[in-house]
């Protein structure tokens, strides 16, 4: 198949790193066998080289090169679920087809961009897992004309904002504890040259031991992340005797859109309806229990080393689910977590919880209004309340990782949640028929703590 993407990468003079120190590789699935075959773009031949996915391993010497060695524009062959990886200051370490780990044991400054260059060509920057470097992607979208998405701010500015998030008081606060965000910073080795801050992880990306230097620390902060949304869910979103309206995930600004309805009973159980009179249940998912579980008591601890028994678990009973991970990670689960990650109504409710607007009853207006997102206690609690400055509280918390990156993103858009495309906020460029795509590297600079 002829190339559907003509790629140009510009390392801007102000980026902070010379092109001979910026390593690049293009990886992805073989479109003829996406489940079993994986490979890389050979920059010398311009061809994709695929092999068995299970045994594939990154070899930076043959699969990557530095920016100064590439002639642009680059005709990208047909690659499915592709990734453009950038590594700054050092070649890529070996990693499997699933990609390099972003956890704190990886001392490489890197980032990635997602693309498909086959029958449905598209490209998007992603901070779903972490923020590492700043770049802007430009192209011609089939629907919107000339568009660009990404971050044109230096990484110093963005990481500075991500590391200046106000901490909750007291620091032992259980629900809504914004101290979790200070734990997500990945620092470089003090003994090595390079930036002291490599990246900031999305909370969902954190391994259990990433949450602290010892067991006491990582158990507390991992648990605080799991219960970050509990008070918001129980006191506002699933509060008793509530009635609200909203759209499902297929909403488009141009419409037409179908309105759905929700009511809660005395114990907070949410019922979903297809009519305003609340007589016709939404049969795929008639009811939802509040997505939260009790904070674990000392008597509930498993045997040593006392790690949270439900960490990253999305299967089982209500009390077995790691609801913070499921909601903030936009994950798919089973059992009590069924439907949240795959039903169009539940997905809209999930992302609206993360954005801090699910408690607003006029969901057909406020849930689809990006200016309402991530305001915490600054969001009006009724149609007549005046807005206040954004402030995070125990029961109206702000998911600052997403808030900061949306604030810094061009046009307020960023791909930070897996469902950031819900309600028309998709920062992807679908460029069928318009193959020219440009990536400008803005922020590779050293970041001082």
What does this structure look like?
The chain is of the alpha+beta class and 449 residues long. Strand 3 and strand 4 form a beta hairpin. The longest helix is centred in the middle third of the chain and has 12 residues. The strands form four sheets. Strands 2, 3, 4, 5, 7, 8, 9 and 19 form an eight-stranded antiparallel beta sheet that branches. The protein has eight helices and 20 strands. It has two domains: 275 residues, Thaumatin; 167 residues, no CATH class.
Could you please say which CATH topology of the largest domain applies here? Thaumatin
Residue windows where pLDDT falls under 50 for at least 5 positions: none
Q: What percent of residues adopt helix (DSSP H or I)? A: 10-25%
Head-to-tail CA distance between termini: 47 Å
SSE blueprint and pairings:
Blueprint: E1 5-11, E2 22-29, E3 37-42, E4 47-52, H1 60-63, E5 65-66, E6 74-76, E7 80-88, E8 109-116, E9 122-125, E10 130-131, E11 134-141, E12 145-150, H2 155-162, E13 185-187, E14 197-201, H3 215-226, H4 230-237, E15 243-247, E16 259-264, E17 270-273, E18 287-288, H5 323-328, H6 344-355, H7 363-366, H8 400-408, E19 429-430, E20 436-443
Parallel strand pairs: 1-20
Antiparallel strand pairs: 1-6, 2-3, 2-5, 2-7, 3-4, 7-8, 8-9, 9-19, 10-14, 11-12, 11-20, 13-14, 15-16, 16-17, 17-18
